[in-house]
């Protein structure tokens, strides 16, 4: 009996040793004004029987962009690292000499990275078929994904920010324009150009050129948007400093249908083609003839873009693709994708009971996960055949992606693959740290508190402690 009590006491003391915040982390939290009650922490060395540190690990918290790790890991497992999306051109007509007598059907496959150069290659393939003139309509098939999404301005009243772009089966060039601002000292004006230069976007330029330092130049520019889906107007007012020189910024305007239709006509004209038909939407029928296809990069490359640069719309496209591939036979919705992810985790025995997915990107007020649940997923991912692709998709601390400026000239630089997330009131971190003795360690820290914006030093303290323990 005494031996039993002794062992119980020893076990209790061991649990107490790891069921606390590491001292450097607790101290950094105090300095940041963040209470320990707002933190979920889970640190576990690969291959060890018990975690190194656990704190409120069962608490469901908003993970912000760390949710992308859930989406990308599930995607790699369910779709495979070599998975590719396809965007296809069909016709219901015939090609006679250089004339296509019939409609062109553009069928979207949900490609997350159909950039303008890839879209150009697709239309170039059609020109290489000998087609110059299209005597029919452009028919858009966007039926793979639902088109019902909340207004992008609802999240933070920034509808033109590219991070708010909604997904679409025919997402093209991320539905963005690159606007370049060029000051002209002689005329005391600021020239604004748009790329791609689509006539459906009208720019009203009321900017005033001023003297003085550049500073945060975008904060001095006010933007008003009028967007009816197929056309849009951007009105700029405020001031722009001559010392800023040439600067560029991205804007997401126009609806998906209007954007892809306008881009098609623009690129087709650039390629020497002729098109005077209407633009309409319909599902591609089974009797159509395929003219050309454009395949995306492999998923292993796509997840690098999603995680290293925290691309929201690409993550959302991936979740919808998971839903479309689930075999449910319905138009893909975020809920369908989330259900497929939950079923995958349940089938693998990965316990994530607190997981709530709204869109899979972390751009959400309601998405939730616990530190332990995320930690269990990362432990399982390390044993997975897709482990190399998954880990390599995360930013390398002090080297690239969203972590390229963090912990420079420290022992942690180049020794940790870490995904971070931030929203108002939320800061998160998850990934893998290689410690000073060459042991790989899973780290997860989720912070939800009004002072979460002070959490960078707390996260850095955790990474230093984990690496140098």
Q: What would you note in describing this structure?
A:
The protein has eleven helices and 21 strands. The chain is α/β, with parallel strands linked by helices. It folds into two domains: 11-82 and 300-468, DD-peptidase/beta-lactamase superfamily (Beta-lactamase, 3-Layer(aba) Sandwich); 85-296, 3-Layer(bba) Sandwich (D-tyrosyl-trna(Tyr) Deacylase, Chain: A).
Summarize the structure.
The chain is of the alpha/beta class and about 475 residues long. It is built from eleven helices and 21 strands.
Give the helix/strand layout.
Elements lengths: L1 H17 L4 H10 L6 E7 L7 E3 L11 H13 L6 E6 L2 E3 L2 E3 L2 E4 L8 H13 L4 E3 L2 E4 L34 E9 L4 E7 L5 E5 L2 E3 L10 E7 L4 E10 L5 E6 L3 H15 L3 E2 L3 E3 L7 E7 L3 H10 L3 H13 L9 H15 L22 H12 L4 H6 L23 E8 L2 E9 L5 E9 L7 H13 L1
Parallel strand pairs: 5-7, 6-8, 7-16, 8-17, 11-14, 12-14
Antiparallel strand pairs: 1-2, 1-21, 3-6, 3-18, 4-5, 9-10, 9-15, 13-14, 19-20, 20-21
Helix pairs in contact: 2-11, 3-6, 3-7, 4-5, 7-8
